[in-house]
Specification:
The protein is of the alpha+beta class. It folds into two domains: 69 residues, 2-Layer Sandwich (Ribosomal Protein S8, Chain: A, domain 1), CATH 3.30.1370; 156 residues, no CATH class. The chain is 22% helix and 42% strand. Strands 5-4-11-10 form a four-stranded antiparallel sheet. Strands 6-7-8-9 form a four-stranded antiparallel sheet, with no helix packed on it. Strands 1-3-2 form a three-stranded antiparallel sheet, with helices on one face. A hairpin with a 4-residue loop joins β2 and β3. It is elongated.
Protein backbone atom coordinates (compact mmCIF):
# COMPACT_ATOMS: atom_id res chain seq x y z
CA UNK A 1 0.00 0.00 0.00
CA UNK A 2 2.83 2.37 0.94
CA UNK A 3 4.57 1.57 -2.36
CA UNK A 4 1.41 2.46 -4.30
CA UNK A 5 1.15 5.80 -2.49
CA UNK A 6 4.78 6.61 -3.33
CA UNK A 7 4.18 5.89 -7.05
CA UNK A 8 1.03 8.04 -7.10
CA UNK A 9 2.91 10.85 -5.36
CA UNK A 10 5.69 10.76 -7.98
CA UNK A 11 3.19 10.77 -10.85
CA UNK A 12 1.35 13.73 -9.34
CA UNK A 13 4.61 15.66 -8.85
CA UNK A 14 5.71 14.98 -12.43
CA UNK A 15 2.34 16.04 -13.83
CA UNK A 16 2.43 19.25 -11.81
CA UNK A 17 5.97 20.06 -13.05
CA UNK A 18 4.99 19.46 -16.67
CA UNK A 19 1.94 21.66 -16.31
CA UNK A 20 4.08 24.43 -14.83
CA UNK A 21 6.61 24.14 -17.70
CA UNK A 22 3.80 24.22 -20.27
CA UNK A 23 2.31 27.27 -18.60
CA UNK A 24 5.74 28.94 -18.63
CA UNK A 25 6.17 28.21 -22.36
CA UNK A 26 2.74 29.62 -23.17
CA UNK A 27 3.52 32.71 -21.13
CA UNK A 28 6.70 33.23 -23.15
CA UNK A 29 4.99 32.54 -26.49
CA UNK A 30 2.23 35.05 -25.99
CA UNK A 31 3.79 38.24 -24.84
CA UNK A 32 1.63 40.07 -22.29
CA UNK A 33 4.17 42.49 -20.87
CA UNK A 34 5.94 44.22 -23.79
CA UNK A 35 3.79 46.02 -26.33
CA UNK A 36 4.20 46.14 -30.10
CA UNK A 37 4.40 49.47 -31.89
CA UNK A 38 3.24 50.24 -35.42
CA UNK A 39 5.17 52.33 -37.94
CA UNK A 40 4.75 53.14 -41.62
CA UNK A 41 8.00 54.04 -43.42
CA UNK A 42 7.78 55.92 -46.71
CA UNK A 43 10.26 54.86 -49.40
CA UNK A 44 11.72 57.86 -51.23
CA UNK A 45 14.39 56.68 -53.66
CA UNK A 46 14.69 52.90 -53.74
CA UNK A 47 12.32 50.05 -54.49
CA UNK A 48 10.18 48.96 -51.53
CA UNK A 49 10.79 45.32 -52.42
CA UNK A 50 14.60 45.77 -52.51
CA UNK A 51 14.62 47.51 -49.14
CA UNK A 52 12.27 44.95 -47.61
CA UNK A 53 14.51 42.05 -48.64
CA UNK A 54 17.44 43.83 -46.95
CA UNK A 55 15.80 44.78 -43.63
CA UNK A 56 13.51 41.75 -43.17
CA UNK A 57 15.93 40.08 -40.73
CA UNK A 58 15.88 43.13 -38.46
CA UNK A 59 12.38 42.19 -37.29
CA UNK A 60 12.03 40.26 -34.04
CA UNK A 61 10.15 37.39 -35.64
CA UNK A 62 8.04 37.20 -32.49
CA UNK A 63 4.49 35.92 -32.93
CA UNK A 64 2.26 38.85 -33.79
CA UNK A 65 5.02 40.98 -35.33
CA UNK A 66 4.84 41.75 -39.05
CA UNK A 67 6.54 43.63 -41.86
CA UNK A 68 4.84 44.35 -45.18
CA UNK A 69 6.06 46.32 -48.25
CA UNK A 70 3.57 48.10 -50.50
CA UNK A 71 5.02 48.56 -53.99
CA UNK A 72 2.34 50.94 -55.27
CA UNK A 73 2.24 53.18 -52.19
CA UNK A 74 6.04 52.95 -51.80
CA UNK A 75 5.78 52.15 -48.10
CA UNK A 76 6.96 49.50 -45.63
CA UNK A 77 4.63 48.88 -42.67
CA UNK A 78 6.14 47.39 -39.51
CA UNK A 79 4.55 46.01 -36.34
CA UNK A 80 7.21 45.05 -33.82
CA UNK A 81 8.95 45.92 -30.56
CA UNK A 82 10.24 49.53 -30.26
CA UNK A 83 13.91 48.50 -30.42
CA UNK A 84 13.34 46.55 -33.65
CA UNK A 85 11.49 49.47 -35.21
CA UNK A 86 14.36 51.76 -34.21
CA UNK A 87 16.88 49.42 -35.88
CA UNK A 88 14.75 49.28 -39.04
CA UNK A 89 14.44 53.07 -39.12
CA UNK A 90 18.21 53.49 -38.82
CA UNK A 91 18.83 50.98 -41.62
CA UNK A 92 16.34 52.71 -43.93
CA UNK A 93 18.05 56.05 -43.34
CA UNK A 94 21.31 54.55 -44.61
CA UNK A 95 19.83 52.58 -47.50
CA UNK A 96 17.04 54.76 -48.90
CA UNK A 97 19.21 57.41 -50.54
CA UNK A 98 19.31 58.97 -54.01
CA UNK A 99 20.83 56.70 -56.65
CA UNK A 100 23.79 58.28 -58.39
CA UNK A 101 23.20 58.79 -62.09
CA UNK A 102 25.15 56.31 -64.18
CA UNK A 103 27.25 57.93 -66.91
CA UNK A 104 26.18 57.43 -70.49
CA UNK A 105 28.59 55.83 -72.96
CA UNK A 106 28.63 56.13 -76.73
CA UNK A 107 29.88 53.04 -78.56
CA UNK A 108 30.89 53.18 -82.23
CA UNK A 109 31.20 49.75 -83.82
CA UNK A 110 32.71 49.39 -87.29
CA UNK A 111 33.02 46.10 -89.18
CA UNK A 112 35.63 45.95 -91.94
CA UNK A 113 36.28 43.36 -94.62
CA UNK A 114 39.92 42.78 -95.60
CA UNK A 115 40.98 41.15 -98.87
CA UNK A 116 44.08 40.49 -100.95
CA UNK A 117 42.20 41.64 -104.05
CA UNK A 118 40.24 44.87 -104.62
CA UNK A 119 36.78 45.02 -103.06
CA UNK A 120 33.53 46.37 -104.48
CA UNK A 121 31.50 48.17 -101.89
CA UNK A 122 31.64 50.96 -99.35
CA UNK A 123 34.99 52.78 -99.17
CA UNK A 124 36.75 53.28 -95.85
CA UNK A 125 35.69 56.57 -94.16
CA UNK A 126 38.41 59.08 -93.30
CA UNK A 127 38.06 58.51 -89.56
CA UNK A 128 39.09 54.86 -90.00
CA UNK A 129 41.92 55.53 -92.44
CA UNK A 130 44.65 55.50 -89.71
CA UNK A 131 43.36 52.13 -88.46
CA UNK A 132 43.43 50.65 -91.96
CA UNK A 133 46.97 51.95 -92.49
CA UNK A 134 48.11 50.10 -89.36
CA UNK A 135 46.27 46.95 -90.44
CA UNK A 136 47.95 47.03 -93.86
CA UNK A 137 51.32 47.18 -92.10
CA UNK A 138 50.59 44.20 -89.84
CA UNK A 139 48.24 41.91 -91.79
CA UNK A 140 48.62 40.25 -95.21
CA UNK A 141 45.61 42.02 -96.70
CA UNK A 142 46.08 45.07 -98.92
CA UNK A 143 42.46 46.07 -99.53
CA UNK A 144 39.74 47.03 -97.05
CA UNK A 145 36.05 47.87 -97.28
CA UNK A 146 33.45 48.99 -94.74
CA UNK A 147 30.71 46.45 -94.11
CA UNK A 148 28.84 48.46 -91.48
CA UNK A 149 29.23 51.13 -88.85
CA UNK A 150 26.76 51.76 -86.03
CA UNK A 151 26.51 54.08 -83.04
CA UNK A 152 24.88 53.04 -79.76
CA UNK A 153 24.35 54.74 -76.44
CA UNK A 154 24.17 52.81 -73.21
CA UNK A 155 24.89 53.38 -69.51
CA UNK A 156 27.54 52.02 -67.18
CA UNK A 157 26.44 48.66 -65.83
CA UNK A 158 24.26 47.86 -68.82
CA UNK A 159 24.97 46.39 -72.24
CA UNK A 160 23.78 46.60 -75.82
CA UNK A 161 23.23 44.44 -78.85
CA UNK A 162 22.65 44.88 -82.56
CA UNK A 163 22.27 42.99 -85.81
CA UNK A 164 22.09 43.58 -89.55
CA UNK A 165 22.57 42.23 -93.06
CA UNK A 166 26.03 42.26 -94.62
CA UNK A 167 26.72 43.56 -98.15
CA UNK A 168 27.11 40.47 -100.35
CA UNK A 169 29.02 42.45 -103.01
CA UNK A 170 31.61 43.37 -100.47
CA UNK A 171 32.13 39.70 -99.74
CA UNK A 172 32.70 39.01 -103.45
CA UNK A 173 29.47 37.14 -104.13
CA UNK A 174 27.76 37.27 -107.54
CA UNK A 175 24.09 38.33 -107.84
CA UNK A 176 23.06 34.66 -108.18
CA UNK A 177 24.79 33.85 -104.95
CA UNK A 178 23.33 36.76 -103.05
CA UNK A 179 21.31 35.74 -100.04
CA UNK A 180 20.84 37.27 -96.56
CA UNK A 181 24.06 37.28 -94.58
CA UNK A 182 23.11 38.12 -91.02
CA UNK A 183 25.49 39.33 -88.38
CA UNK A 184 24.90 40.14 -84.72
CA UNK A 185 26.85 41.43 -81.76
CA UNK A 186 26.34 41.69 -78.00
CA UNK A 187 28.17 43.75 -75.38
CA UNK A 188 27.63 42.90 -71.72
CA UNK A 189 28.76 44.34 -68.36
CA UNK A 190 30.09 47.70 -69.53
CA UNK A 191 31.96 49.68 -66.85
CA UNK A 192 33.99 52.89 -66.74
CA UNK A 193 37.34 53.31 -65.00
CA UNK A 194 38.24 56.97 -64.33
CA UNK A 195 41.25 56.66 -62.03
CA UNK A 196 43.68 57.00 -64.94
CA UNK A 197 44.88 59.89 -67.10
CA UNK A 198 42.35 58.95 -69.75
CA UNK A 199 39.07 57.18 -68.76
CA UNK A 200 38.86 53.55 -69.83
CA UNK A 201 35.73 51.67 -70.84
CA UNK A 202 35.76 48.01 -69.83
CA UNK A 203 33.54 45.52 -71.68
CA UNK A 204 33.58 42.22 -69.88
CA UNK A 205 31.94 40.30 -72.70
CA UNK A 206 31.97 41.25 -76.41
CA UNK A 207 30.46 38.73 -78.83
CA UNK A 208 30.30 38.97 -82.62
CA UNK A 209 29.01 36.28 -84.99
CA UNK A 210 28.14 35.93 -88.69
CA UNK A 211 27.45 33.08 -91.13
CA UNK A 212 29.33 33.77 -94.35
CA UNK A 213 28.79 31.93 -97.67
CA UNK A 214 32.09 30.68 -99.06
CA UNK A 215 32.67 29.46 -102.64
CA UNK A 216 33.85 25.84 -102.51
CA UNK A 217 34.34 24.58 -106.06
CA UNK A 218 30.95 24.84 -107.77
CA UNK A 219 28.96 25.12 -104.56
CA UNK A 220 28.55 27.52 -101.67
CA UNK A 221 29.03 26.52 -98.07
CA UNK A 222 28.31 28.65 -95.03
CA UNK A 223 31.13 29.31 -92.63
CA UNK A 224 30.44 30.53 -89.10
CA UNK A 225 32.86 33.27 -88.08
CA UNK A 226 33.11 35.39 -84.99
CA UNK A 227 34.67 35.69 -81.55
CA UNK A 228 34.02 36.31 -77.87
CA UNK A 229 36.45 38.39 -75.81
CA UNK A 230 36.75 40.97 -73.02
CA UNK A 231 37.64 44.45 -74.25
CA UNK A 232 39.38 47.47 -72.72
CA UNK A 233 39.05 50.73 -74.66
CA UNK A 234 40.57 54.04 -73.64
CA UNK A 235 38.49 57.17 -74.17
CA UNK A 236 38.07 57.97 -77.89
CA UNK A 237 40.69 55.40 -78.88
CA UNK A 238 39.93 53.17 -81.89
CA UNK A 239 40.66 49.58 -80.92
CA UNK A 240 40.74 46.49 -83.14
CA UNK A 241 39.07 43.91 -80.93
CA UNK A 242 38.58 41.00 -83.28
CA UNK A 243 39.99 39.60 -86.52
CA UNK A 244 38.73 36.36 -88.02
CA UNK A 245 39.37 34.81 -91.43
CA UNK A 246 36.68 33.67 -93.89
CA UNK A 247 38.09 32.04 -96.99
CA UNK A 248 40.45 34.48 -98.73
CA UNK A 249 39.13 37.42 -96.70
CA UNK A 250 39.06 38.57 -93.11
CA UNK A 251 36.48 40.23 -90.88
CA UNK A 252 37.74 42.93 -88.52
CA UNK A 253 35.79 44.74 -85.77
CA UNK A 254 36.88 48.19 -84.57
CA UNK A 255 35.36 49.86 -81.51
CA UNK A 256 35.48 53.42 -80.17
CA UNK A 257 34.03 54.26 -76.75
CA UNK A 258 33.31 57.71 -75.35
CA UNK A 259 31.90 58.62 -71.95
CA UNK A 260 29.17 61.23 -72.37
CA UNK A 261 29.10 62.34 -68.71
CA UNK A 262 31.32 65.30 -69.45
CA UNK A 263 29.49 66.24 -72.64
CA UNK A 264 32.36 65.08 -74.88
CA UNK A 265 31.59 63.90 -78.36
CA UNK A 266 33.04 60.85 -80.02
CA UNK A 267 35.78 61.19 -82.55
Amino acid sequence: MKRLLVILTLILATTTALAQDDKKEKTEEFNTVREFKNRVFEVQYRSASELYSTIALLGSGFKGSAMSPNFQMRTITVRDFPENIAAIEEALKRLDRPIAARPEIEMRIAVLIASKTPLAGNPIPDELAPVVKQLQATLRYAHYGLMTTTVHRTTVGDGLEGSGVADANLLGLTPKEERPILYRYKLRDITSVTNTERPTIEIRHFEFSMNVPINVGTSIQYQSVGFETPVSVREKEKVVIGTTTMGDKALIVVVTATSMSGGAAGS
